[in-house]
């Protein structure tokens, strides 16, 4: 794992190693989407991960998919996030706020305005979502008009500006996991007949326009982008054109000189190799289910520049120290992943705490 511990750069940031903290929804924000003190503590505890990518923050009321997720579009949201970023910086880390518009993966019970979810096309994802009254079917969304698409792009731009105003080092555009940008990309979720649907170029258009708007607002060096080719989350199916669409999208995003590309990789190794050859800036490769001993393999081979860590960093605030020492890891408690208080969130012990308890 020698290369894993070498320094690298993301945009203008110099990182101490090649690990990063993956974005993970934890649903601990206030009802209005403001991050509180517990969220500040959670991220500060994990500052040694170097680059922290926050849980998805909705850029608007329409963008909220789940209960208690943070927003980044009001003054209160900015004030709350400022405390988070200050805490992370004081602890020696960097943080990118992920901008996540859930699109159709939502429910009226989960949003502030209680309206029908929005999407590129009026097609339900065919899955359930958690609400305050339990699991419910996600309803058919309302198709965005072309004018509303432009408003949504403007919402992303404003959210990026708000993130920087809140002290974030950059933003990650969430174009993955079945959410709005991915819904425009998906072959079964986008049946539009205008310039935002049909061809590869049209299905990628929304993603590219969002990226351009954010770059225009905060700079390419502070903008990352996440993709998940072939991932069926939220009922998305890429279709036969999927791999070629992602090759096209990668090249177009590469032309914009973004700080990084973050790929959730589920097994199309040929496509991953093609993306690596098209992408010359830092590439983050998140391999689902990889073993601890294989964390550095993609970096050693040159396939990736950073390895994002999800559940291990959730349960081990000192994951870096434990990995370097070959120490055992805390086991994550899935029952506390979403919602609740400090239990299963900020109470996972560090090695130092465990040693002091023994002493």
Automatic annotation (TrEMBL):
> GO molecular function, one example?
oxidoreductase activity, acting on the CH-CH group of donors, NAD or NADP as acceptor
Sequence ranges assigned to domain NADH:flavin oxidoreductase/NADH oxidase N-terminal in this UniProt record? 9-330
Which InterPro entries is this protein grouped with? Aldolase_TIM, OxRdtase_FMN_N, Oye-like
UniProtKB keywords = Oxidoreductase
Q: Which cofactor does it need?
A: FMN
| Pfam families membership | Oxidored_FMN (PF00724)
The answer to whether the entry has keyword Oxidoreductase is yes
Query: Could you give one GO CC term from the UniProt record?
Result: cytosol
Q: Which family does it belong to?
A: Belongs to the NADH:flavin oxidoreductase/NADH oxidase family.
Under what name is this protein listed?
A: Alkene reductase
Q: Which organism is it from?
A: Paenibacillus monticola
């Amino acid at each position: 794992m020698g290369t894993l511990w070498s320094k690298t750069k993301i945009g203008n940031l110099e990182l101490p190693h090649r690990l990063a903290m993956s974005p993970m929804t934890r649903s601990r924000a206030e009802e209005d989407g403001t991050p509180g003190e517990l969220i500040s503590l959670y991220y500060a505890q994990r500052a040694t991960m170097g680059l922290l990518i926050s849980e998805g923050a909705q850029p608007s009321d329409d963008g909220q998919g789940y209960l208690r997720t943070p927003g980044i579009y009001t003054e209160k949201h900015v004030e709350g996030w400022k405390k988070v970023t200050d805490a992370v910086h004081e602890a020696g880390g960097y943080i990118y706020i992920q901008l996540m518009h859930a699109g159709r993966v939502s429910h009226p019970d989960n949003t502030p305005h209680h309206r029908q979810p929005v999407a590129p096309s009026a097609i339900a994802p065919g899955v359930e979502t958690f609400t305050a009254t339990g699991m419910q079917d996600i309803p058919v969304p309302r198709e965005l008009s072309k004018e509303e698409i432009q408003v949504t792009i403007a919402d992303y731009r404003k959210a990026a500006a708000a993130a920087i105003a809140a002290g974030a080092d950059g933003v990650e555009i969430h174009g993955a996991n079945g959410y709005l940008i991915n819904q425009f990309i998906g072959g079964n979720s986008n049946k539009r007949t205008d310039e935002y649907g049909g061809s590869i170029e049209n299905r990628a258009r929304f993603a590219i326009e969002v990226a351009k708007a954010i770059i225009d607002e905060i700079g390419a060096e502070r903008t990352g982008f996440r993709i998940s080719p072939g991932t069926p989350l939220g009922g998305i199916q890429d279709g036969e054109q999927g791999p070629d669409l992602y090759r096209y999208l990668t090249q177009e995003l590469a032309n914009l000189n973004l700080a990084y590309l973050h790929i959730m990789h589920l097994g199309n190794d040929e496509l991953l190799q093609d993306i690596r050859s098209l992408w010359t800036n830092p590439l983050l490769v998140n391999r689902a289910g990889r073993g601890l001993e294989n964390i550095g393999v993609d970096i050693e081979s040159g396939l990736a520049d950073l390895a994002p860590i999800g559940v291990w960093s959730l349960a081990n605030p000192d994951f870096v120290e434990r990995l370097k020492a070959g120490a055992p890891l805390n086991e994550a408690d899935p029952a506390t992943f979403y919602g609740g208080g400090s239990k299963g969130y900020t109470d996972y012990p560090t090695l130092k705490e465990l040693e002091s308890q023994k002493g």
